[in-house]
Design brief:
rod-shaped; 95% helix; 3 helices; 166 residues
């Protein structure tokens, strides 16, 4: 019986050792499951990242297409606006040109009227000017008389040549 007890004890020891091995295997299995979960999650993250990149690229292409479409629409609208402005402002430009011509004509008439006014103003002051003119004519006659009186004295050769030049 002592042999049996030893065998039972050795078997119990072996069972305990096997239980420890099983526990170690369970811990290893749990670690492997966690690693597998991490890898599969990482793989899912990789798939998610790849799909996100594809979605981003698709959105970028759509945005580029929309931007080019916007630029074309903007260019067309600007051209249309420019054409409409030209159509609207063309009559105004014609009116402004006509008004400009009228301003030039009015300026010319104003100059004519100004000249006429000056003539009228001169004629209104004609009495005073006639007196001045009469005084000037009288002075001119006196100078002519004096010159005729003085000229025989200066008819010499030297003074005669000088007098004839002037």
């Amino acid at each position: 019986m002592a042999a049996h007890i030893e065998q039972v004890e050795s078997k119990n020891a072996e069972v305990e050792r096997l239980k420890g091995t099983i526990d170690e295997y369970k811990v290893s299995i749990e670690e492997l499951n966690r690693a597998l979960t991490a890898v599969s999650t990482g793989n899912n993250d990789g798939q998610y990242l790849a799909s996100t990149i594809q979605e981003y690229d698709h959105l970028r292409r759509n945005n580029e297409a929309q931007y080019h479409e916007f630029e074309n629409i903007k260019r067309n609208l600007m051209a249309d606006l420019s054409n409409r402005c030209e159509k609207v402002f063309q009559p105004f430009l014609v009116i402004v040109a006509r008004a400009n011509d009228q301003v030039v004509e009015l300026e010319m008439k104003l100059n004519e009227i100004s000249e006429q006014y000056k003539v009228v103003a001169k004629s209104a002051n004609s009495r005073a000017q006639q007196r001045k003119l009469e005084a000037l004519e009288y002075n001119l006659e006196r100078l002519s008389t004096v010159q005729q009186q003085v000229s025989p004295f200066f008819e010499g050769e030297l003074m005669g040549s000088w007098w004839n030049r002037t």
